[in-house]
Every structure is written in C-alpha cells, then in structure tokens.
Write a structure and sequence with these properties.
heterodimer; A: about 300 residues; alpha/beta; Rossmann fold; 2 domains; five-stranded parallel β-sheet; B: about 180 residues; three-stranded antiparallel β-sheet; 3 helices
Chain lengths: ~300, ~180
C-alpha cells in the first residue's frame, strides 16, 4: 500500500510504523528533488494550504512554507498576533473563515495541547499539527528520526538519549513515539524536576546523570530549556543547569566513540549546548533542518493523496 | 483471464538488437546522447539497451533513471504508485535524450517524464523509445520514435512485460481482463 492510514497528522501516536516508513521513503525522493537545480515539483498545484501559527516559530514555519511551495501548493500564512484572534474570535470561527476561502489543508501550531484534534473533529480539511503546547510536534519527531536513519543507516536497535527539558517538550514525546515504533531504545535525561512523573511508563529509561546518558547512547538529542512555558522555577539558575546538564565538545570527545548530536532548535548556546559542541563534527543539526523540508514535503504530499 | 504471448525472449532479443541498430544509425558514437530509463518498468529495457550499445560502440554511454511520479497529472484523481528513485547524475543541458519505457499507452507517463526532465536542464532533442506501442489508446499527441512492436489493443486489455532482471525470462504478454 502506498497510502497513509490517517487523513490528518495530529501526532505520531496515531500513525503506524508502515506510515512512518512510507513517509521516509517518500522523503528520500523529495530530498533528491530539493537538491536539484530546479527544486520544485507540480504535485500539489491544485491544493491550497493555510499555515496558522498561534505561537511563534521560525524554523518550522519556514520549513513548512518552503515544503509547500516546492510542491507547488498555494500558501496562505496567518499569525495570531496580527489577526482578529486578538479581537476575541474563537479558534473554530477563525479556521472556518479561512476554510470558507477554499483551503484544503491546515498546518497549525497552537499553545493548547489537543487544539488540532479539536479542529479535526469539526472541519473537513486535512490537519497537520505543527506543535500543540507540550503535547506533540509530529513532523519534528519524524525529521529527527529520519536524520538518525540517514546518519546511522537504521533506527532499529539504536540507543537514543533525549536530554534536557522533557517536561515541557512536545519534541520529546513525538520523538519517543516515532523512535519506539521503529524499534530504537530510548533514555530520557534531565533534572528530576524537568522529567514528567510517569515517563518510565512509556517504556523509556530514566537517567539523571548526563555523562552516563552520553556514555550509553549512539545519538544524543538535546532539548532547549523552555523558559516561556515554565511558570515556576524548576532549577536554581541557568548557570547551574548548564554546569550540571550542559554539553560541551570536551565532554563529547572524552567519550572516545562516535556520537550523533542533535538539537531541534532554537539552541540556547551556552545553556544546554556549548557553541563548540553545537558546531562540532558530531553535530547533525544543519542536516536536521534540511531533512525537515523533505520530510514535510512527504507528509503534505501523502496527506493530499489520502484526502482526494 | 486469457494470456497471449506477444514477444518471447528470442524475438525480444532480436527486437532489442534492432532498436540498438536504429539508435546507432541516428546517434553515431553517442557523444552528446544520454539514455533515460523511466521508472519503474522502463529501467529494465534501458539497462539491456545500454549494455548492448556500450558493447557494440565500445564507448561509455550515460544512463540515468527518471521517475515522473511527482509530475503526474492524475495525482489525487486516482491511486498512483509509490515514487521511485530518480538518478540522473549528469546534466541534460544541450544533450540528446533517449527516453526509454516498456509500454506506450495513454502517453500520460511520457508527458510527466518530459516535465520531470526539465529539472535537469534543457535537452537539445528528446526521443522516445518503447518496446510495445499500444496503438489507438493515446490520450495525448505523443508518438514514439523507436518502436519494438506495435500492437492493437483494447483499453480493457493489459500488456504484461516480464524482465529477466526481475527473475523471469524476458517475455511480453497481452492479457484480457474479464
């Protein structure tokens, strides 16, 4: 079968292993497309996509917009800060008004977990979740997993440590689901206050010592401290966090092994990652960004196919 | 389901040799000519022709694989197959391109391939080689320059091509679907 099992991409939790493999195979072909002199294919020329961002974003939004344009879709952009949402319009009214203008797909980022699921129950367009609060960020989970597959050849059996602010991270959850579906072993590492209480119930290992996590893993996916989501203090100071959980090049080199260093961005240089580590030969951060466009092209292409 | 043999492996061998001769007649030493096999099923005859041409001209001839899935005009209108690898590790700018496919039917795949090809440069000339030309079934004004065998078929019939690269003897069948 060459079709996705779902009409929407709301979270990795809802899709199957076969779906993920189909997305990756399709992304391989799109990665080839975006490295040609002419980086565009006409597949979605009859599709209109609205990018609705209720939360700030640079990478994800740019990446989606590029992916859409390289598939020849018509694109409309919407950001909550400059819209009638400020005047008190509800989410459903806002989206329905956009759909009345004949939009086929909606890419949405929202601060509330479950917002895209709510929309999926009320409107007919395909929905791609571009991050819903602290819940899921499925395309990031896919592109991280895709980057691991590209770098190491396979995901199955690889050891991946997710390090940092797990509690507020939608990237962590989507990564855990995607990696587990493809058979990777997962460890989360961070200060106990930033680890969700029942995280081990997901079948992941928990480690509090970052050095031990690095020694264990093949891939370290380092997450940002999400200060904007932290209502209370979870650790004494950024300096102290950096001292205990920050990763630098010296530390990586002292492991005396191949390690793949990832970060979904934006990086707080000097906090979770030092500059020399982020720019070191271990880092695949620029590849993640490139793969992001190819993976999002694959997701949009395959969802458009299901919708027709 | 009735199956009728159109070309057996012996006849197919002769046909491919003749197509190679025709190509040599028009392209000489293949200085500016490249071969493009169309994914997924045109790559097998393309490989056979490439091998034969290199043998008889004793020249290195460039061969690429082109997938036109993302350029099809029936995406979202009917189920289409999964995309395959495109491998064109050379520029098509000012080259003579010979597109190779197994069966020419509606002409829509060829239209998509012409579109897909432009991403790799502007060829000076494009020619089409097919092993089987299904006459009277064209949706578009497209014709092949080199034809292995022309067959009169109904739209409801199917042409099945088996290649030895897929682990079967080279054979071409006409199938009546009931």
């Amino acid at each position: 079968m060459s079709r996705l099992s779902q009409k929407h991409l709301l979270g990795i939790k809802d899709i199957t292993r076969e779906d993920i493999e189909l997305i990756f195979e399709t992304a391989d072909n799109f990665k080839d497309v975006i490295n040609r002199p002419i980086k565009k294919v006409p597949s979605l020329r009859d599709v209109t996509i609205a990018n609705i961002f209720f939360e700030n974003s640079t990478r994800t939004r740019l990446s989606f917009e590029l992916a859409e344009k390289r598939l020849s879709a018509d694109v409309v952009n919407f950001s909550a800060s400059t819209s009638s949402v400020k005047k008190g319009e509800t989410l459903l009214d806002t989206v329905n008004n956009i759909l009345a203008m004949k939009v086929d797909m909606v890419v949405m980022r929202h601060a509330s977990p479950g917002a895209p699921h709510f929309l999926a129950n009320h409107i007919s367009a395909n929905i791609v979740n571009a991050g819903d609060g602290t819940h899921e960020h499925p395309t990031q989970g896919l592109l991280d997993t895709y980057s691991i597959r590209e770098k190491l050849g396979t995901v199955s059996g690889k050891k991946v440590a997710i390090i940092g602010d797990i509690l507020h991270s939608r990237v962590a959850l989507s990564n855990i689901f995607a990696l587990q579906k493809l058979g990777a072993k997962i460890m989360v590492c961070g200060p106990p206050t930033l680890l969700p209480k029942f995280i081990s119930k997901l079948g992941v290992q928990v480690e509090l010592d970052v050095r031990k996590a690095l020694e264990w893993c093949d891939v370290a996916n380092v997450l940002r401290i999400q200060l904007e989501r932290q209502q209370i203090k979870y650790f004494p100071s950024l300096r102290e966090y950096s001292l205990y959980y920050g990763i630098n090049k010296k530390m990586l080199d002292s492991l005396k092994k191949e390690i793949v260093l990832m970060h979904p961005g934006p990086i707080n240089r000097g906090v979770e990652l030092s500059s020399d580590a982020a720019d070191s030969q271990h880092s695949v951060i620029p590849d993640q960004v490139e793969n992001g466009v190819a993976v999002r092209m694959a997701v949009l292409y395959l969802l458009a196919e299901v919708a027709a | 389901m009735q199956k009728k043999l159109i070309l057996d492996s012996h006849l197919l061998e002769i046909t491919i040799s003749r197509l190679c001769q025709e190509l040599i007649e028009n392209h000489g030493d293949f200085e500016d000519t490249v071969l493009l096999g169309m994914q997924p099923r045109g790559i097998y005859p393309a490989e056979l022709i490439h091998l034969k041409l290199e043998k008889s001209t004793k020249k290195k001839i460039q061969l690429g694989y082109l997938d036109a899935t993302f350029h099809r005009d029936d995406f979202r209108r009917r189920e289409i197959a999964k995309a395959n690898e495109t491998r064109v590790p050379f520029s098509l700018e000012n080259k003579k391109v010979v597109l190779i496919d197994d069966v020419l039917f509606t002409g829509r795949t060829v239209r998509a391939a012409l579109d897909a090809m432009i991403s790799f440069g502007r060829p000076s000339k494009v020619e089409l080689l097919v092993i089987i030309d299904r006459k009277y079934n064209r949706d578009l004004p497209i014709a092949a320059d080199y034809v292995g065998k022309t067959v009169n078929t109904l739209a409801s019939q199917k042409v099945l091509v088996e290649w030895e690269q897929q682990g079967k003897p080279n054979k071409i069948w006409l199938i009546n679907k009931d």
